[in-house]
Prior knowledge:
The structure is a homodimer.
Chain A: H1 19-33, H2 45-52, H3 56-68, E1 72-75, E2 79-82, H4 86-92, H5 103-117, H6 121-127, H7 130-143, H8 149-165, H9 170-188, H10 193-212, H11 216-228
Antiparallel strand pairs in A: 1-2
The structure holds a DNA duplex.
Keywords (chains A, B): DNA-binding, Transcription, Transcription regulation
Protein name (chains A, B): DNA-binding FadR family transcriptional regulator
GO molecular function (chains A, B): DNA binding; DNA-binding transcription factor activity
Amino acid sequence: MSAELGGEPGKAGPAGESAVDAVVQQIRNLIASSKLKVGDHLPTERDLCAQFNASRNTVREAMRILKAYGLVDVRPKIGATITDNRMTRAFELFSFNTMEISRKTFSDVQAFRSLIEVGSADLFFDRLRQEDLDDLSEINASLAENHDLNEASEIDFAFHVRLVSILDNHAVLDVYAVMKPVILRIMQKGKTRRTFMTETFSEHQDVVDALAARDRLAFQYRLRSHLMIGFRFFSEEMEESA
Amino acid sequence: MSAELGGEPGKAGPAGESAVDAVVQQIRNLIASSKLKVGDHLPTERDLCAQFNASRNTVREAMRILKAYGLVDVRPKIGATITDNRMTRAFELFSFNTMEISRKTFSDVQAFRSLIEVGSADLFFDRLRQEDLDDLSEINASLAENHDLNEASEIDFAFHVRLVSILDNHAVLDVYAVMKPVILRIMQKGKTRRTFMTETFSEHQDVVDALAARDRLAFQYRLRSHLMIGFRFFSEEMEESA
DNA sequence: TAGGACTTTCTTGGTCCAACAAATAAGAAC
DNA sequence: GTTCTTATTTGTTGGACCAAGAAAGTCCTA
């Protein structure tokens, strides 16, 4: 039953594919061919070992990949069950905030926010109420006070969340929640405490004024400018090769 | 979910964090504190074992997670290098088309599309040009011809891509490209060739007509209905298995 | 006897260890 | 400069043990 030590791999798949990748593929096939649905159970790790003739560590690494992709949910003693959290995972990719914000990430995220915030202008004016304006002004007023960078960016973020909350769309708020870490980093880039207290505060106030005046063009122009103003802090970076 | 990814999930998860999650977090901290950039090398697996007091398997499983998220690229003998392939990984996420589309994925994806397509109505009318209408009509006309399911869904998808292309936002087009495999599956769910030729064609035509008439309310209502009409094909799913 | 509470056993994922294979960068030998 | 050797590092394997929880068995009481 055990693999032949030092022997020919034999049934190994196409050259160049790792054993872990092969197991991932085989589990995918298993899911597809067995027509497993969300909530169904996968065989135990040890069963999969026997079924795919792989060691348990290999199966476990494959399972980690599937788990990272949001396709299975594995709990001790319970085993692996099929799930489908791909959409959540996709957004979480942008919440992974270990390294310096890259120019590309800045561009992607801000373009997306621009789509939401600037692109929904007409919805804003449809739903806008006085209390929205009051809240925005109050939050922004706090920005003018003396905070450290982290606090200031949190307030900046809260301002934008309050803004999009006018849209009353939970999906949007969810997206903002998962992207919060990246957005915070973007907000801090190139700024000081004073920048928040002066420039950012002023830009926000201009946006609120445009909202209050129901001046859609001004609202869109000012908000778009506000979102893109940090672009100057990101220098071109070389394309690394694999 | 994603105990290893969420920075501060805030959820009442089990107090005990797994060793693998801990190592993932420590590697993240290492990247952040060392200010590692794309292309830089991580310490070897064995170094990380010593550094974090973890076994090699634990470190390897942690590395698999980081690799799955497109944050590191590890090659034999070379070691792990920092990368940023999050977009690519997102694409692979949605290429995992092994299982039946779940109700949750349908709901997530269509709600998101609704946000983009319905929520940007006012931008559509701002930018709309005659050639946009002509292209949309032409694409939709093709849908009325006799195609197989795959071809029909491709045309359906092309229609919506052409629609959002009016927004002239590359980020949105990128998102649609990434989600294409899932969107195609959603479009095919519960449909036949004839459904595409009749119902889908008709719904599209109604949307185009509303665009041409610059009737924003009709545009939003019809488009939203069109996106959500497939919902009836997804039944509630239960949690446990047989 | 029936039924519930307690105990034991077994299953299963989580972690660790030790070894070897394979790939390849780096140095040695020519 | 080319080729060979060596050393290092990831890839894979099999085995071991633990902790948590489910399942099964046991025992006590009404």
